């Protein structure tokens, strides 16, 4: 049976976007300074994998959110009157996200946890990161991605992904010296030899494995909460095609042998830097033996069986922002109860 078109593969939660990245502007060394003087510029506040958000009043989507965008002038005023390491030479600083008809978008990366330094008088000095984050609600992109509209989902995914790369690229991978941000957040340059590096993405395959009886194979990873099951996934190895990676990962983790492999869609997954390539894979064997290391349980599910397990609370599904959820619901033929883990 062919999968029902219940998943809109062109509109996966973290693949959606409406903003032009305007990459041709990244080499402009005065870009951020100029944009911050424009009244239409808005700033996305990023803290780890979380972003400042607020309720989307008037939306027809239950629980809908919007990014809590800050006018550029407001951020500049805070930075000018407080202590801050946000724009220190080696900090991620400003990230240029792009433009649309409403203006330009920047991201400012806040520290995940702020240290409370005390001055000689015993007072904790006011810092820009504290003031900018005060009173704002931060939600993890994994949990909130599907609740944002296309514009905000694209901005949020890009901001989290590039910010995560900066945190891991503070030192030159060749000589170990410090690096500094360049190209308005889209590269880093070694302060010793001038070598330039760019954000990288690691390709990973994720697959709905289905047998001749239309059962779906779901696995439980060792580090997941009890009862959580999802589609199998793994990274593509050097010198390997994505189709070969699908077959290798399924066999390594469950001993199931895969025949035909059909590509479905892709989605960025910036935790910290994956690109998830989604597939539907046909199983030619059905005996399951888990590796016991990465995967500690794997089972075949019928549609009725999965629905019953969800209703009884025996199984938790991946969050709606993941491509895994789309693969599962395409196989199922429609939306499943929103019980996630």
From TrEMBL:
One Gene Ontology term of the molecular function aspect: NADH pyrophosphatase activity
EC number in record: 3.6.1.22
Enzyme class: hydrolase
Database matches in PROSITE patterns: NUDIX, NUDIX_BOX
Gene3D superfamilies: 3.90.79.20, Nucleoside Triphosphate Pyrophosphohydrolase
CDD domains in UniProt: NUDIX_NADH_pyrophosphatase_Nudt13 (cd03429)
Keywords on record: Hydrolase, Magnesium, Metal-binding, NAD
A Gene Ontology biological process term: NADP+ catabolic process
A Pfam family annotated for this UniProt entry: NUDIX-like
A Gene Ontology term for the protein's cellular component: cytosol
Family statement drawn from the similarity comment of this UniProt entry: Belongs to the Nudix hydrolase family. NudC subfamily.
NCBIfam families linked to this entry: PRK00241.1
Protein name: NAD(+) diphosphatase
């Amino acid at each position: 049976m062919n999968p029902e078109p219940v998943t809109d593969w062109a509109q996966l939660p973290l693949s959606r976007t409406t903003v032009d990245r305007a990459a041709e502007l990244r080499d402009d060394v005065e870009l951020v300074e100029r944009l911050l003087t424009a009244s239409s510029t808005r700033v996305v506040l990023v803290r780890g994998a979380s972003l400042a958000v607020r309720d989307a009043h008037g939306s027809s989507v239950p629980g809908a959110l919007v990014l809590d965008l800050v006018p550029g002038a407001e951020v500049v005023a805070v930075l000018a009157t407080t202590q801050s390491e946000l724009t220190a030479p080696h900090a991620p600083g400003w990230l240029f996200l792009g433009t649309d008809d409403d203006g330009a978008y920047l991201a400012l990366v806040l520290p995940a946890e702020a240290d409370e330094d005390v001055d000689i008088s015993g007072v904790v000095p006011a810092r820009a990161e504290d003031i900018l984050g005060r009173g704002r609600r931060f939600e993890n992109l994994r949990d909130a991605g599907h609740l944002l509209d296309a514009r905000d989902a694209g901005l949020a995914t890009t901001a989290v992904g590039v910010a995560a790369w900066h945190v891991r690229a503070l030192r030159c991978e060749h000589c170990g010296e410090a690096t500094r941000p360049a190209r308005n957040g889209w590269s880093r340059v070694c302060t010793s030899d001038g070598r330039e590096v760019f954000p990288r993405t690691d390709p990973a395959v994720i697959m709905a494995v289905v047998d001749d009886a239309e059962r779906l194979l779901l696995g439980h990873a060792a580090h997941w909460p009890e009862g959580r099951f999802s589609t199998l996934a793994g990274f593509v190895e050097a010198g390997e095609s994505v189709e070969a990676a699908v077959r290798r990962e399924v066999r390594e983790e469950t001993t199931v042998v895969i025949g035909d492999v059909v590509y479905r869609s892709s989605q960025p997954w910036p935790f910290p830097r994956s690109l998830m390539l989604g597939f539907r894979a046909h199983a030619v064997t059905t005996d399951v033996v888990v590796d016991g290391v990465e995967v500690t349980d794997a089972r075949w599910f019928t549609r009725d069986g999965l629905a019953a397990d969800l209703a009884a609370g025996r199984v938790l599904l991946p969050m709606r922002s993941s491509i895994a959820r789309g693969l599962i619901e395409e196989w199922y033929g429609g939306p499943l109860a929103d019980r996630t883990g």
